[in-house]
Amino acid sequence: MSWTLTADRIAELARGAAVLGTGGGGDPYIGSLLAAQALAEHGPVTVVSLDEVPDDALVLTVAMMGAPTVMVEKLPSLEEVIAPVHALDTYLGRPVTHVACAEIGGVNSTIPVAAAAALGLPLVDADGMGRAFPELQMVLPTLYGVTASPLAFGDEKGNVGVLNTADNHWTERIARVACVEMGCSIMISGFPMSGSVAREALVPGSLAHCLAIGSGITAARAAKADAVAATVELLGGREFFSGKVVDVERGTTAGFARGRARIDGADSSLDLAFQNEHLIARSGDEVFVTTPDLIIVLDAESGEPITTEGLRYGQRVRVIAAPSDPRWHSAEALAMVGPGYFGYDLPSHRFDGTAERVLEGVTA
Amino acid sequence: MSWTLTADRIAELARGAAVLGTGGGGDPYIGSLLAAQALAEHGPVTVVSLDEVPDDALVLTVAMMGAPTVMVEKLPSLEEVIAPVHALDTYLGRPVTHVACAEIGGVNSTIPVAAAAALGLPLVDADGMGRAFPELQMVLPTLYGVTASPLAFGDEKGNVGVLNTADNHWTERIARVACVEMGCSIMISGFPMSGSVAREALVPGSLAHCLAIGSGITAARAAKADAVAATVELLGGREFFSGKVVDVERGTTAGFARGRARIDGADSSLDLAFQNEHLIARSGDEVFVTTPDLIIVLDAESGEPITTEGLRYGQRVRVIAAPSDPRWHSAEALAMVGPGYFGYDLPSHRFDGTAERVLEGVTA
């Protein structure tokens, strides 16, 4: 069933995207500014479910690539957002019919809204991850054999490139060094898929889910209910830690925002490690949750999601674990997005809704 | 007047290219292997003078990009050489009609021969520099407003990209980081030009000149004459130093072979600084020749050119200065290829055939 996305929903979409971004994906606020502008200029966007996409459609993902720390300082123009799509149109020799989100976290939930509005195309209610991940090959379509390339990229200076690579990891490698050289933040479009492939390879319903999470926080707050608990329920997750941010180490290296944060609870400390997104949550040697499952930091009072670049000393936070799309737990998927890929010599600690120990200080 | 380039001339072309490469441009031997193979498989190449290129021709340069230190270990296949040309064919939507050399030094004098043979296209007797330079925007066409992009690049793994950039410096920047990521050596094709623009912007007759230099060394050696003197005469240059290589510092950084060499003469030492190509020749504070004029190191006995990566302790060498194409001495050109661009706080010391002091130990 198709529905219409209007400008008044963008703030809630962005809030949900900050939750699903698991700390990364870029601050959705900048994407929401652009989406609101595009909807104001070009009218609302039609969101179609995967079921409604014709088999022979040409679906492309549209995304911002780069370090979130830099993205927040470089709001792209609408022209910049759609330039890679036009480059692919030309390269493929046929018109794009649908826009999709590569990831449903962070800025890349709202940027495709802006693209769809500016292009006058429907947006698919789906995404490639069900969350956010830091590298472009880290989407379920890669597991289904969908090639990232031809993938186009562009920047605010008018530079545009089209890559056709040996595999999706090479698309990431070449686009990433270009991204760093071009100022650590570029627009990309790629993963051309037919409707039938998109139906198989994407996560269905993620835009609606993201909106529900965002509006759930708003509604809980209005009702003076616990917004964190509302989010936990929508995610099928669990709150497993609460405390005060006491230490944040953050650097922008090789095109990523990498770092770690420490949160002190009543009796113990939680260490979070991130590369754009939160990857590992542990206390001393005890590991609680790891990528690909979701680690989400929320403001303890308001339930507002906090991105890794927004973490500050003294914040009172509550930390949620939630299950990822189950397809991320296959051996092939874990090789791509598991702890080992990011350099952690740890098995993946799968969140199943019951196995996580609830630590001290949790109020819900 | 057109002429035919056959496999038996390739060794001499490569030798001349090592002279005009001023130490850089990659070891022409690896390009000569590929050119000989292409001529054997596809037959001889027709070389046409710039006068013969139709006004509406589509001329493209074909070149290898990367660190010469790496190029010598990565002989490309013919498929790899022509893949970027095919990518541009498709991108431009019309067939390429002529191949041209971006530079007449090093591997990039013989690689276009291989490309022309494999593509069945005529090769233009011209190049973009009249020598070799380390960065891709450093061609006379840049001064005539010819855009490097669309520029295509490709590697041995099957990765291909097409860039359309804001200016030629951005083409260099993005292609260079891609090149480094792809293993420090890639094939490129770009600078699409009409015949009339090529006539204005390229250096005419450079292939024939290069062949004459190479065969001049061979002939002098056969006649037991001085091969260095023969080269000096063909270049309109001057031998200004001779001695023994006593020190070579060389590193491959940011995609370039950078370093310096010291040559001890009878009473003084000559210091050469290079970035792929020789840039500066000086003795203490006294500067003798600088980029864009040519600094060429030849074996003292055989007159064989020595590339910067071929410099070794103990070699007895003679050093030549020769004038570049005069267009390289405009203020705009010097901003692009003069000593200052490479980080040397020196005025350009123009070689005029008489101004250079002849130092001790010179035998000619």
Task: Give your account of this protein's structure.
Two copies of one chain form a homodimer. Chain A is an alpha+beta fold and 364 residues long. Chain A folds into two domains: 3-206, 3-Layer(aba) Sandwich (CV3147-like fold), CATH 3.40.1610.10; 227-342, Beta Barrel (CV3147-like), CATH 2.40.390. Chain A is 32% helix and 28% strand. Chain A has eleven helices and 16 strands. Chain A has helices spanning 10-20, 28-42, 68-71, 78-92, 107-119, 140-143, 168-181, 195-201, 206-222, 227-235, 331-337, and strands spanning 3-5, 45-48, 59-66, 98-101, 123-127, 151-154, 160-164, 185-193, 203-204, 238-253, 256-264, 269-275, 277-283, 286-290, 294-299, 316-322. In chain A, the strands form two sheets. In chain A, strands 1, 2, 3, 4, 5, 6, 7, 8 and 9 form a nine-stranded mixed beta sheet that branches. In chain A, helix 2 (28-42) packs parallel to helix 5. The longest helix of chain A is centred in the middle third of the chain and has 17 residues, at 206-222. In chain A, 61% of the residues are buried. Chains A and B meet through strand 7 and helix 7 of A and strand 7 and helix 7 of B.
Average pLDDT value of chain A? 92
**What is the annotated CATH architecture of the largest domain in chain A?**
3-Layer(aba) Sandwich
Radius of gyration of chain A: 19 Å
Separation, N- and C-terminal Cα atoms of chain A: 35 Å
Find the CATH topology of the largest domain in chain A.
CV3147-like fold
In CATH, the homologous superfamily of the largest domain in chain A goes by the name CV3147-like domain
Helix content class of chain A: 25-40%
CATH class of the largest domain in chain A: Alpha Beta
> Please, how many helices of chain A?
11
The low-confidence runs of chain A, each spanning 5 or more residues with pLDDT under 50, are 354-364
Structural class of chain A: alpha+beta
From N to C, what is the helix and strand string of chain A?
Answer: EHHEEHHEHEHEEHEHEHHEEEEEEEH
Pfam families (chains A, B): S-Me-THD_C (PF20906), S-Me-THD_N (PF06032)
Domain S-Me-THD N-terminal (chains A, B): 9-164
Domain S-Me-THD-like C-terminal (chains A, B): 167-347
InterPro entries (chains A, B): S-Me-THD-like_C, S-Me-THD_C_sf, S-Me-THD_N, S-Me-THD_N_sf
